[in-house]
């Protein structure tokens, strides 16, 4: 499936121009759907400051949440790559702050994930490990593992993820799902602990049985640690997109 061409098309929605995959089934797992706008007839006042709309005070919809605001409360245009908008779009103050924080992921962490890192990879309970390069696919839907062999893990089929740090040993109670990973203390940028590995549980294509995959930083531990920290950021967006 990862070999399917990632053709894109330009579409116009009420919110603006969007560059989306030709086949909607191949959307990035980080992407969000456009919200339903609150109907004009149901919104007579700004949903932030309660100002009443009239001929002078016009109503505007936030492109991220779909709620209705006056110009003062929804005047800023902010980039929103998670909805594939070509240009910055109008957002309320709350959504604009969230979108600005997410831009760090697209500007920095995503590039790190695409660049890859080198890890010692162990599948299941096997005694055999292999040094492999792990990177995110260009369509953001797979983790590619390349060494003497090659295999892929689809992000949508990952059920749990644990980021390991130096000195931390995994246990049954230490598995971090996407939910708890958002507040995990296992990765702290600029902190004293450094990410040293990752433990994944996922379902291979065509199977309903979960398999374990363990990754430990190989020679270039700094690059591997940065890659793991970026994956930690990605997990938060994956969880949010699933929960939409």
UniProtKB/TrEMBL annotation:
Presence of the UniProt keyword Zinc in the record: yes
Gene responsible for this protein: zfyve21
Entry-linked Gene3D superfamilies: Zinc finger FYVE domain-containing protein 21, C-terminal, Zinc/RING finger domain, C3HC4 (zinc finger)
SMART domains on file: FYVE
CDD domains named in the record: FYVE_ZF21
Stretches assigned to the FYVE-type domain: 40-95
Designated name of the protein: Zinc finger FYVE domain-containing protein 21 isoform X1
Lineage, broadest ranks: Eukaryota, Metazoa, Chordata, Craniata, Vertebrata
Keyword Membrane: no
An annotated Gene Ontology molecular function: zinc ion binding
Native source organism of the sequence: Betta splendens
Alphabetically ordered keywords of this record: Metal-binding, Zinc, Zinc-finger
InterPro entries the UniProt entry points to: FYVE-type_Zinc_Finger, ZFYVE21_C, ZFYVE21_C_sf, Znf_FYVE, Znf_FYVE-rel, Znf_FYVE_PHD, Znf_RING/FYVE/PHD
Pfam families per UniProt: FYVE (PF01363), ZFYVE21_C (PF16696)
